[in-house]
Amino acid sequence: MEKNKNIWIGIAVVILVSTNLRAPITAVSPILDEMKSVLKIDNFQASLLTSIPLFVFAFCSILVSKATAKINIRHGLIYSLIILTIGIYVRIYGNISMLYIGSLLIGLGICIGNVLTPAYIKNTFPTKIGIMTGIFSVSMSLIAALASGLSISIGNWTNLGWKGSLGVWIVAAIAALIIVCIDSLKNKSVTQQKTVQSEDVKFNIFKSKQAWNISIFMGLQSLIYYCLVALLPTLLIDFGMTKTNAGWVFSVLQLAMLPAMLVSPVLASRMKNPKIMIYITSALYFIGIITLLIFKAKFSYLSAILIGIAGGFAFSLSILFFSLRTKTMVGTIKISGMAQSVGYLIAAFGPPIFGKLYDIDSTWSYSLYFLMFCMMILTFFGIKASQPKFVEED
């Protein structure tokens, strides 16, 4: 009975922590106009509110992995949530300096959570890594989408405007903090024993070929996603769609990702070499992008579904590789840090290139060719990452 109770607490930890790893960022975009008006900031200053956490992910993930490799995983998650809670509070303090300091703290808190949650899953659910990775991915993406869609409404409901829209996420952070503290107290001796055992493993993650395969795969799937996040609605409007319909197409893409995120890691974790999942991902990406290229907006909803499923597969597989291709907790933490540092750095170049190619060719053809090129490289490194080789040995 006690064992089952601990399992449910562990599941709650994964769900509640994951709900905090994107929502505080995605809630910002819909209310930027209001924030610019109230705080008298320009577009560049406003854009930093989203960019700062992403830069923190890119430049701090590997540092976080080194710093947290020798500590209790649950304690690391507690630190993550405390920093996140402080960051959310500081961000809505009311002046521009606090806005940026809060965004920086939010980025750091989420960065620690990003790195440690896959290790927590591997540590707590060693025989259920696939399904728990799926639950983690779906919870994170679903709440992130809801945060974006409900951000304005939350501000209205609370009568606090943009402060209410952003401040409400402190409730989710505190809820996650409470459940992680409970989990830590109930599993204190077990957690410490496993963490100490894994500390004896020492290797240079940057010398591992498999680690680079996983990191580049992670980066390219993020690049494709953020290109579409940034410019798909604009592309569809240029193809003749209304703003409303273009928004719905993007919503369909995000919704199509959710079941794929849940199913793909479960299937892949049962395969010795899940390269068939990589081929399916690439085929769906290819058909979806080609459909946009040839038929423009005519079959845009079909394109969105295909690309969304592919994106859900790619994201969950990249997270799953952190656990499947490591033998130890230290290995999982290190590859999680490296892949997210390298990955977000690669992804950061995607939207500017995608947009610049539109400046060269206003039909969006070059931009879509660029995504197809990235998809081919993604396939190559995905097949490599699928091979049953561990980062500690390769």
Descriptive labels:
394 residues, mainly alpha, 82% helix, globular
Largest sheet: none
Number of helices: 17
Class computed from helices, strands and strand pairing:
mainly alpha
**Secondary-structure element order, as H and E?**
HHHHHHHHHHHHHHHHH
Shape: globular
Q: What gap, in angstroms, lies between the N and C termini?
A: 41 Å
- In total, the number of strands is 0
Strand content: under 5%
Radius of gyration: 20 Å
Low-confidence regions: 191-199
Mean pLDDT: 86
**Level of helix content?**
over 70%
Task: Describe the structure in your own words.
There is one protein chain. The protein has 17 helices and no strands. The chain is globular, with a radius of gyration of 20 Å. The protein has 394 residues and is mainly α. Helix 1 (2-18) packs antiparallel against helix 6, helix 4 packs parallel to helix 6 and helix 12 (243-269) packs parallel to helix 14. The protein has helices spanning 2-18, 23-26, 32-39, 43-68, 73-91, 96-124, 129-158, 162-167, 169-186, 188-198, 209-238, 243-269, 275-295, 300-324, 329-348, 350-360, 365-386.
Topology:
Blueprint lengths: L1 H17 L4 H4 L5 H8 L3 H26 L4 H19 L4 H29 L4 H30 L3 H6 L1 H18 L1 H11 L10 H30 L4 H27 L5 H21 L4 H25 L4 H20 L1 H11 L4 H22 L8
Q: Outline of this structure?
A:
The chain has 394 residues and is mainly alpha-helical.
